[in-house]
Specification:
Pathway: Amino-acid degradation; L-threonine degradation via oxydo-reductase pathway; glycine from L-threonine: step 1/2
EC number: 1.1.1.103
Number of helices: 15
Order of helices and strands: HHEHEHEHEHHEHEEHEEHEEHEHHHH
Mean pLDDT: 87
Function: Catalyzes the NAD(+)-dependent oxidation of L-threonine to 2-amino-3-ketobutyrate, mediating L-threonine catabolism.
Shape: globular
Bound molecules: nicotinamide-adenine-dinucleotide
Helix content: 40-55%
Largest sheet: 7 strands, parallel
Strand content: 5-15%
Catalytic activity: L-threonine + NAD(+) = (2S)-2-amino-3-oxobutanoate + NADH + H(+)
GO molecular function, one term: identical protein binding
CATH superfamily: NAD(P)-binding Rossmann-like Domain
């Protein structure tokens, strides 16, 4: 049991030492004895546990949402089933529960999070827990708690345990005073939703921890993500997922955005691949820590026209939701992702025609109700 002995010796040395002995240096890649919550820790202590595995040991927070289950599938293929732990505060459906490790984790519970990271020797953390834009506007105090206080917990734990941390940002991190067509990586960011404000906060705090404490923080600004595997989670771009379910189920679709509302969108496979690629990108290829990624940009009317190529009888009416429309009108119409393409070779696979045929094939081949029921 040499590892256990080494661990306990290192731990007892740390615990006997007065003060935190923090030696974090600005710009250093590795965090040395970072102690944000005054919990003593030590670089040698971490290296004992983490040098034991070739693969990262991954934790995904908020893993039962629209994106987390697909991310877990991708990462488990790459790193092995047992090296990827999904977590959430909701009860997982059977197919998720039996597909690999799942653990309860509330990101507002700092001690519980730390225990999970330590006990499972986590080295990479994908922080997906969030309240999305429309849901966040409906409950600002909760969105503030989950999206901001929760992020603080994640940042401190990631820095304390030298984790590589991925936090997704969004087109919603921009606002009406940002350039909208196209929107570059660096420009004015004055969003007017609590969701957007919390995501700008996440970008800035992550970058601050990177430069201040050496946290390996990596962040992508996702467009609206379209997937057949789950129901949308309360975002402004939900219509672009819902249309496929409704077209297959009833042939009728009510759109809550105006027909000419142009927004950047991406098929989930591209989004998850980009996420893995930026996490695997060599540190020296990253000239920034927060990148736009883009694939396509379309309006509801353009999407309807493309769906009608497959389902000509689709009936659509527009019943604008004022909250979502105001949000959409303040968001980018096109995303400039040239830095991601240049630095780490980002390239999307799916444009609008491939997206539509893929979604209809997936939902059609399995059946809308069955497929949605499997994951919710
Ligand atoms: N889906 C998109 O189109 C999109 C676009 C841009 C960015 N993103 C970002 O990607 C991430 C994942 O998005 P999603 O669509 O899967 O979101 P989602 O709303 O579908 O899922 C979020 C998950 O977080 C969980 N959660 C809520 N409170 C929690 C808490 N206190 N502790 C732990 N978990 C909690 C929820 O139970 C839910 O399963 C989010 O950070 C989101 O901002 C998503």
């Amino acid at each position: 049991m040499p590892i256990v002995r080494n661990l306990s010796r290192a731990a007892s040395q740390v615990l006997q030492r007065p003060g935190c002995g923090c030696q974090a240096s600005i710009g250093s890649v590795r965090c040395i004895s970072f102690s944000p919550r005054k919990v003593t820790s030590d670089a040698s202590f971490h290296s004992v546990s983490f040098s034991e595995t070739d693969h990262p040991r991954v934790l995904i927070t908020g893993g039962l949402g629209q994106l987390g289950v697909g991310l877990a599938q991708l990462l488990r293929k790459r790193f092995g089933k047992n090296n990827v732990i999904l977590s959430d505060i909701r009860k997982p459906p059977d197919n998720v529960f039996y597909s690999g490790p799942f653990i309860y984790s509330d990101i507002l519970d700092y001690k519980n999070l730390r225990e999970i990271v330590v006990n499972n020797r986590i080295t990479w953390l994908f922080h997906y827990s969030a309240l999305l834009s429309a849901v966040g506007e409906a409950n600002v105090p909760l969105a503030r708690a989950v999206n901001i206080t929760g992020l603080h917990n994640i940042l401190d734990i990631a820095a304390e345990h030298s984790l590589r941390l991925f936090v997704p940002s969004t087109i919603g991190a921009f606002g009406p005073t940002s350039p909208r067509n196209p929107t570059p990586d660096l420009c004015v960011q004055r969003p007017r939703t609590i969701y957007g404000v919390s995501k700008v906060h996440a970008e800035l705090m992550g970058e601050y921890y990177h430069y201040r404490y050496g946290l390996d923080f990596r962040c992508l600004r996702y467009p609206g993500i379209i997937s057949a595997d789950s129901q949308p989670g309360g975002g402004t771009t939900d219509y672009a997922v819902q249309i496929f379910h409704d077209a297959m189920k009833s042939g009728k679709f009510q759109c809550n955005l105006k027909p000419d509302t142009r927004l950047p969108m991406m098929y989930i496979d591209d989004c998850l691949r980009a996420t893995l690629e930026i996490m695997e990108a060599p540190t020296d290829s990253l000239s920034m820590r927060t990148y736009n990624i883009s694939a396509m940009s379309f309006t509801p009317e353009e999407l309807v026209q493309e769906v009608r190529k497959h389902i000509p009888e689709l009936q659509v009416n527009y019943n604008m939701d004022a909250v979502r429309q105001a949000i959409a009108d303040s968001w980018p119409m096109n995303f400039d992702d040239s830095n991601a393409r240049k630095d780490w070779g980002w390239k999307h696979d799916y444009d609008l025609p491939e997206l539509v045929s893929t979604m209809l094939n997936l939902l059609g081949s399995v059946g809308t109700t069955t497929r949605v029921a499997q994951v919710n």
